[in-house]
Amino acid sequence: MNGLIKPLYEMNEFNLLLSDIKKGLNPVAVNGLSGSSKSHIVYSVYDSVNKPVMLITYNDMEAKTIYEDLCFFTDKVYYLPSREAMLYDIEAVSWDIASERLKVINGIMEGDNCIVVTSVDNIAQRYIDPNIVRKYSLKFKVGDVVNLSDIINTFIIAGYERVDIVEGKGQFSIRGGIIDFFPMICDKPYRMELFDVEIDSIRQFDVLSQRSTEKVNYAQIFPAREMIVSRETIQKAYEKIKNDAESQIKNFRSKKNKEAESRLRTRMGNIAEKLKESIYFEGIDSFFPYFYSRSFTLFDFFKDKPLVMVDEPQRVIQRIDTQSFEFQELYKTMLEKGNVMPLQGELLYPKGEVLGSIRENKLLTLNLFPKNVENFRPVTAVNFYAVSIHSYDGKIELLIEDIKDWKLKKYKVVILSGTPAKGRMIAETLREKGIETAYYDVYPEDILPEQIIITNGAISEGFEYPAIHFAVVSDREIFGEKKHRRRFMSQSGVSSKIKNFTDLKIGDYVVHVNHGIGIFQGIRQLTVDGIKRDYLDIRYASGDKLYVPVEQLDLVQKYIGSEGKPPKIYKLGGTEWSKAKVKVKESIKKMAEDLVKLYAIRQKVEGHAFSADTPWQAQFEEEFPYE
Q1: Residues 406-428: tens digit of each pLDDT
Q2: How far is CA 613 from the centre of its chain?
Q3: Nearest-angstrom CA–CA distance, 521 and 501
Q4: How far is Cα 139 from Cα 190, in angstroms, rounded to an integer?
Q5: Which stretches of 278-350 are DSSP H helices?
């Protein structure tokens, strides 16, 4: 992507920004950027400074948008999703976000020279000592001599679940000299075979068929949780929790608050029971301050200090205030009712420490308009002038008018077509209108004045730098639409993930992972123990109702079974759903066995060589509106 950076070196503002960074001026305000022009400058600075970059913005949605734009410019970019600071117990959590987060943390610790995009919520979180993570992050290669007992102990402390058959991330199994495990940071599980105490082979395997696939050179065990504890640390933490609880119980007794006293005693009993059953339990993260006397920040995981960019610092500070206020209000209410322990109020860093940890790094602040924000007052400012490209809504003649105008002004123009087929179509159309252009599969190293470059790619919006006569037009401006992602059946065959509440309509059939199929009745705001929260209202058989906290949206999926045939609605508390899941599990195992037999037969049968795909077929595939 150097061809997209080179034009910037003709811009005084960009050269001044690089000079200020090199001089160590801190912080430097970067003004006048929004949308994809912001991502373009972020990437170009990252490419020039040759060090990791952390971009902090004000919410997850904005972080994801910036991340998706940056993915066009480089594959060395990570998006770190937020995890809510939970004070209340939950039934189960989705491991999807946990997996994404651990992948990013691993990438940072590996010393990847990358861009990490995240919201400020993650900077307020407390983290364990990175050295503890390193201790339980092990790499194995063929020929290594290992101790099976040590490996099992590492898996357990690192948060893996021991099972008979590995079917999902965060699980491991031992069968004689065969060790199967599925790291949270990987897309496929591994199978290590031992010959006595030596690793004889390492392969990846298929979860459904359980058949080994390709050989690999090494495999890595990376912690399955961000919070790592041992039996010893659990015992110490329990003593602290117990002492705090006894003190709080005395306080409730002195105030004659029998209800809170009873609730806290019950809670203490539940915690003691959970800690006896296993090292980890859902909700253990909320007791972080009891397990660790010292906490760390996300910045501590970097090998080299990153260049930190704060997107819209005023909105970032507002988010810190909002997050802190909401958390503390919830904590106070729950503390008064005996639902939490005193130290759980320290689950997040206070505002001063959050801002302090950010300011310890070299800073750039990114603003659309120049602002003098307290805590981020710049020592110098660089003011860019970037213009967003207006939408053409599929009217190619409007695009042609702009291109002719840009050519007269000797602009360098880049058109991102979304797909190769669309790119070639645009190139052909422009040539028919007398505009010289060409489609490039790979972006050229240089682009000349009056040259129109068309290439594959997509960003959220186009942009123009009038000062250097450079414009980038995205496929969204041209076609006014985004390629749709086709809905596929999940492994269960009856549901698909819900990414937003707008995916659901009242009356939709939904599937709860623990309770089965019900009917979505809408979002309800309920007050429980004096705390107002939003819940998904799901109706089951016999009028039963289930209220699911919106934070547990990942536990609910949209039913996508056979059209025209309504599904069976399950009864809450019944055993039918559990039996159905067991039956499906057995069917999958049977299917895996049948597949193994089928593949064995196919290997003996002579195959048929089909002709190569025609250009028409390739064009049809690329223009098909679904992925």
Answers
A1: 999 999 999 998 888 889 989 99
A2: 36
A3: 12
A4: 12
A5: 288-291, 313-336
